[in-house]
Write a structure and sequence with these properties.
single chain; nine-stranded antiparallel beta sheet; eight-stranded antiparallel beta sheet
């Protein structure tokens, strides 16, 4: 019975989240699936006999089924929240080949750290053995690197110092054969000359490195935007407000991450789906 309870609870959770974020046709299918699960639970409660002999369903199981499954379903509503990243957490944005980052890009987001650990912790990265880029922190130092094909090595470095428990807007811009620039709260804090970003075979991920599982962030991320060009200083300064609609020129993808809508989240442009793994949603402040 415990296995049945867990399966029904999971199905109810998934169906509830899906109903909150799908189209009318999809909602109809999800509604039918949800009703089938509910009917299965009702049938079990009505027909299964509890007993104390070997092989019987243990007394109290029906109440567990009703209480846990219904409670799990009712708890999964779309509500304001903040995604928190820790060990095992990641937001996978898909294969790097689908992003076209080698010529130019800008990545922006709001971040807040709950813990600093020794070593490198990736905020956003598609690093591989000899390709990709990363924005990371090492203790209280933010860093921005690309794998520069012109020198066949990593290029970049430290950008600024941060504190625990404080929200920051960060922006990393890159243009091939020009510069990679880093901004903190709309102000430029570093600029490094660079060659061309080497393509990566890894996925683009937030909250961790796709190449090293122990390089994970301890903290929160919201308002992730990715642009097809290197944003100017004035543009980055205006982006700090994060008031995007998804229709801005040059905007490739934007995830507000202000609502807990499940484990697969479509960006505001409708072009990309982020897969969330082991991300804990904190209550909105």
């Amino acid at each position: 019975m415990k296995t049945i309870v867990k399966r029904l609870a999971l199905m109810l959770c998934c169906a509830g989240l899906f109903l909150a974020s799908c189209s009318d046709d999809e909602a109809s299918d999800a509604q039918r699936t949800l009703m089938e699960v509910i009917r299965e639970a009702e049938t079990l409660v009505a027909e299964v006999e509890e007993g104390t002999s070997e092989g019987d369903i243990a007394p109290g199981s029906k109440k567990i089924l009703q209480a846990e499954a219904i409670a799990a379903f009712n708890a999964n509503i779309v509500k304001p929240g903040i995604p928190h990243f820790a060990l095992g957490s990641k937001m996978n944005l898909g294969a790097s080949s689908g992003w076209g980052l080698e010529d130019a890009f800008t990545v922006e987001m709001r971040v807040r750290f709950s813990e600093f650990a020794p070593g490198d912790q990736c905020i956003v990265s598609n690093e591989s053995g000899a390709g990709g880029f990363m924005v990371r922190n090492n203790a209280d130092q933010l860093q921005f690197y690309i794998y520069d094909a012109d020198i066949n090595n990593w290029n970049g470095g430290g950008c600024c110092t941060i504190e625990l428990g404080t929200w920051y807007h960060i922006a990393a811009t890159y243009a091939a054969g020009d510069k990679m620039v880093f901004y903190l709260d709309g102000k430029q804090v570093s600029s490094v000359s660079c060659g061309t970003l080497a393509a990566s075979a890894s996925d683009l991920q937030l909250g961790t490195s796709p190449y090293y599982s122990d390089r994970y962030m301890r903290g929160d991320i919201q308002h992730v935007s990715i642009w097809e060009d290197a944003r100017t200083a004035d543009e980055v300064a205006s982006d700090v407000e994060c008031s995007f609609t998804g229709t801005e020129e040059g905007l490739t993808a934007y995830w507000p991450l202000t609502l807990n809508v499940g484990t697969e989240i479509t960006d505001e442009t409708g072009s990309y789906v982020a897969a969330m793994t082991d991300v804990a949603w904190l209550d909105a402040e």
